[in-house]
UniProtKB/TrEMBL annotation:
The organism of origin for this protein: Jannaschia ovalis
Family: Belongs to the BchN/ChlN family.
SUPFAM superfamilies in UniProt: Helical backbone' metal receptor (SSF53807)
GO molecular function terms attached to this record: oxidoreductase activity
Pfam family of the protein (one): Oxidored_nitro
Metabolic or biological pathway: Porphyrin-containing compound metabolism; bacteriochlorophyll biosynthesis (light-independent)
Its biological purpose: Component of the dark-operative protochlorophyllide reductase (DPOR) that uses Mg-ATP and reduced ferredoxin to reduce ring D of protochlorophyllide (Pchlide) to form chlorophyllide a (Chlide). This reaction is light-independent. The NB-protein (BchN-BchB) is the catalytic component of the complex.
Catalytic reactions on record: chlorophyllide a + oxidized 2[4Fe-4S]-[ferredoxin] + 2 ADP + 2 phosphate = protochlorophyllide a + reduced 2[4Fe-4S]-[ferredoxin] + 2 ATP + 2 H2O
Binding sites annotated in the UniProt record for [4Fe-4S] cluster: 20, 45, 106
Description of how the protein assembles with itself and partners: Protochlorophyllide reductase is composed of three subunits; BchL, BchN and BchB. Forms a heterotetramer of two BchB and two BchN subunits.
Enzyme class: oxidoreductase
GN (gene name): bchN
Name the UniProt record assigns to this protein: Light-independent protochlorophyllide reductase subunit N
Signal peptide location: none
Cofactor note: Binds 1 [4Fe-4S] cluster per heterodimer. The cluster is bound at the heterodimer interface by residues from both subunits.
Length: 427
């Protein structure tokens, strides 16, 4: 299949409307149970985290902010001394911390502080109990999912070396979904499985020339490059969204480890059937509907493949913040010809195309959803697709439902107003 492999990519470089890479802390700090994320930046960045992660009020969070005041930004104070003092106070108060990430909210030249060097200095000072790493969550340089990519890429150089033959799963998933993946692999006889990131620092994986890795998230290009530099080998595959994507992802891993067809079928037949049934229960709402993806999370191509091939939708345009040709090769081959493929963002031009196309569903960021709803367009928040468990077989029906709900809601509202009789498929 070639699908959209040869489709010209519309490259747009203009105004952006996305969250910054700091947003990734909201799910990473839950996943990495003995890590702490210290954001070094302005009050604006502190307010973002407090607002976006405010639901964590009843749990002691593992993130905080070191706010740079005007004197710091003007270079009038020794910010390194202040940072060292704050880190020492934090580690004294939280002795459970084993990994400390210094997350820059702006490029180094803006905050007048080289956080990479600061991380090296502090890591040496607090070793061996605490490892201090650095990455950028700057919205100038990243979209919100790239925060996870930058975080994991920063971890790779410090991972212990190994010559053992292992499978490395790369990407942060909810623990219950990660366990499902491990169970499926174990049923195929693949038991030497590691995960990046580990739930605790002691569980961080090892890596070497006999490590094969499979990406769980499509936005981990820098992490993949860092693993390649360590000698690991990527297993090319579509991403495990929906029944088909999950099966192809598992098949690629199984082939890499020599799993025979009969063993693969025993491990996957039952969950595959459940996933197909769950998706079919929702697909009636989505079938023949037209969907437009504005660039937001880098999940757009795999999701468009799932919606068109398994739910019967028609993709009008699939925009993505960055299109990694190698990582997305399998997804592009599966996505049938027809939609425009766009990389990058120029908000006004893309909104003009949305208004001209009038799709049945527009997948976009929070900042664009309300204005489009006001214009009568039905929208889906892209960020919800990152925060909600959507990978592998048991979540396939839930993934379809996330797209069906706004369409069903619009139909129910229209029926309530008496605009037209509406038949709504059950989820």
């Amino acid at each position: 299949m070639t699908g959209c492999t040869d489709t010209p990519v519309l490259k747009e470089r203009g105004q952006h409307e996305v969250f910054c890479g700091l947003t990734g802390i909201i799910w990473l700090h839950r996943k990495m149970q003995d890590a702490f994320f210290l954001v070094v930046g302005s009050r604006t960045c502190a307010h973002l985290l407090q607002s976006a992660a405010g639901v964590m009020i009843f749990a002691e969070p593992r993130f905080g902010t070191a706010i740079l005041e005007e004197g710091d930004l003007a270079g009038l104070k020794d910010a390194n001394e202040e940072l060292d003092r704050e880190v020492a106070r934090l580690l004294e108060r939280r002795p459970d911390i084993r990994q400390l990430f210094l997350v820059g909210s702006c490029p180094s030249e803006v905050i007048k502080l080289d956080l990479a060097r600061a991380a090296e200095r502090l890591s040496a000072e607090h070793a061996p109990n605490v490892r201090v790493l650095n990455y950028s969550g700057s919205g100038i340089e990243t979209t919100f999912t790239q925060g996870e990519d930058a975080c994991l890429a920063a971890m790779v150089p410090g991972l212990a070396a190994t010559d053992a033959e292992t499978l490395l799963l790369v990407g942060a998933l909810p623990d219950v979904v990660e366990d499902q993946a491990r169970d499926l692999l174990a049923a195929m006889g693949i038991t030497s499985v590691q995960v990046l990131p580990g739930r605790r620092a002691a569980a961080d994986p090892t890596v070497g020339p006999n490590t094969r890795y499979a990406l769980l998230q499509p936005f981990l290009g820098d992490t993949a490059a860092a693993l390649d530099a360590r000698g690991a080998t990527r297993i090319p595959a579509p991403f495990p969204f929906g029944e088909e994507g999950t099966t192809l992802w598992l098949r690629a891993v199984a082939d890499a480890f020599g799993v025979d067809d009969a063993t693969f079928a025993r491990a996957t037949d039952a969950p595959r059937a459940r996933a197909r049934k769950a998706v079919a229960a929702v697909a009636g709402t989505l079938r023949d509907k037209r969907v437009f993806f504005l660039p937001d999370s880098q999940l757009e191509l795999p999701l468009a493949r799932f919606l068109t091939r398994e739910c019967g939708m028609q993709a009008v345009e699939v925009g993505t913040p960055f299109l990694h040709a190698q990582i997305m090769a399998d997804e592009l081959a599966l996505l049938a010809e027809g939609p425009r493929i766009a990389e990058g963002q120029d908000v006004e031009k893309q909104l003009d195309r949305v208004r001209a196309d009038r799709p049945d569903l527009t997948v976009c960021g929070l900042g664009l959803a309300n204005p489009l709803e006001r214009e009568g367009l039905t929208t889906k928040w892209a960020i919800e697709l990152v925060f909600t468990p959507v990978h592998f077989y048991e979540q396939a029906g839930d993934l379809a439902s996330l797209f069906a709900r706004p369409i069903r809601r619009k139909a129910l509202l229209a029926a309530g107003r008496g605009d037209a009789p509406v038949a709504v498929a059950a989820e």
